[in-house]
Amino acid sequence: MKIHELETPALIVDLDRMEGNLQRMADYCHEHGLNLRPHTKTHKIPQLAQKQMDLGARGITVAKVGEAEVMSEEGLDDLLLAYPLFGDAKALRLGAVLERARITVSLDSEESLSWVARAADGKSIDVLVEIDVGMRRCGLKPGPAAVQLARLIDSTAGLRFEGLMFYPGHIYPDWEDSSRKLDQLNSDLQRQVEFFEKQKVPVHRVSGGSTPSAFYSHHIPALTEIRPGTYIFNDRHSLEWKTCSEDHCAASVVTTVVSRAVTGQAIIDGGSKTFSSDPLRVGKKGGFGLVKGFPEVQFVKMNEEHGYLKVPDEAKLEVGQTVQVIPNHICATVNMHDVIFGCRGEEVVESWIVKARGKIR
Ligand SMILES: Cc1ncc(COP(=O)(O)O)c(C=O)c1O
């Protein structure tokens, strides 16, 4: 089957581009002696996680227990739950995952620690203390509190303090004051590691990394592991943040133009329930995706099932024509699709069920 024969809207992946993205990251990590632990919240597909493992990844990252369940059921057996655990239900479910996988959990509070202890129930879980190096989301301020929490972890049955975790989601290299933020991150991290050394609490692992910052990881000497996720597909944000070129954007949504009744406008058969509503958070261009091959066309508005394209007179877009759109935020788009189709050139050659789709618990 050819791409234009797919029933739309359909999420497709250019396999050559995806494989290039995977190989580039694997090579970079190999070259710099970094462990790669890809965040699988981007693709939510066990077969793709396995591909990442086959290329040398040390293990995988998940955000939710539901994702850990899906991935471990399919044989992925070294998981980092990079999200604070809370509640009895999740603790019991994580305990069940522990029967078939090695688990590391990150956290920043004693409360979450008590739930991880409940999940371990005497078995063994490694724990990373999350620190905040400028993102201001989760994570303790670098300083003595992280060491105190590490000591508490080590004194809890089944749990072992393994190291530190941070998410550098505020750093976009080649952008505004990124070098100042990178310097700040490095000095905060270094100070924290030295603090641990002075207190004689060994730090075995320092886990960081996002897609925009991934190829700058060798400028952060304390890092031992990175967790990029988006890099497998990239998206319009990656493009606008200049972390990739359009040739590295592997995923797009194939849509059909279903109406041209309004002058200067084309309606495509995908809106917020196909793409998600994520706005473009960088620059002034706005819009909800990049219409491939039509630089003059803007994706300006969405209803649930309607996408509004602003079409200048010279653009040739006809009713029934298919157009491919690179979404603003691929992770949120993937979560809206049951299936992803893998393509070589114009040919659709495989498909994967998005098995961890909707696993928000
Ligand atoms: C904790 C954590 N680690 C890693 C990532 C991966 O970052 P990216 O999507 O930029 O690849 C994310 C993304 O949200 C994250 O929240």
Number of DSSP helices? 10
* Topology order in helix (H) and strand (E) letters: EHEHEHEHEHEHEHEEHEEHEEEEHEE
Supply the number of structural domains.
2
Largest sheet: 9 strands, mixed
Span from first to last CA? Answer: 36 Å
How much beta, percentage-wise?
15-25%
Query: Mean pLDDT, nearest integer?
Result: 96
What structural class should be given to the helix and strand makeup? Answer: alpha/beta
- CATH class membership of the largest domain: Alpha Beta
Number of separate strands: 17
**Portion of residues within helices:** 25-40%
Q: What do these coordinates show?
A:
By secondary structure, the protein is α/β, with parallel strands linked by helices. The chain folds into two domains: 3-10 and 238-353, D-serine dehydratase-like domain (Lyase, Ornithine Decarboxylase, Chain A, domain 1), CATH 2.40.37.20; 17-232, Alanine racemase (TIM Barrel, Alpha-Beta Barrel). Helix content is 29%, strand content 23%. It contains ten helices and 17 strands. A hairpin with a 2-residue loop joins strand 16 (339-344) and strand 17 (347-353). The two termini are 36 Å apart. The structure holds pyridoxal-5'-phosphate.
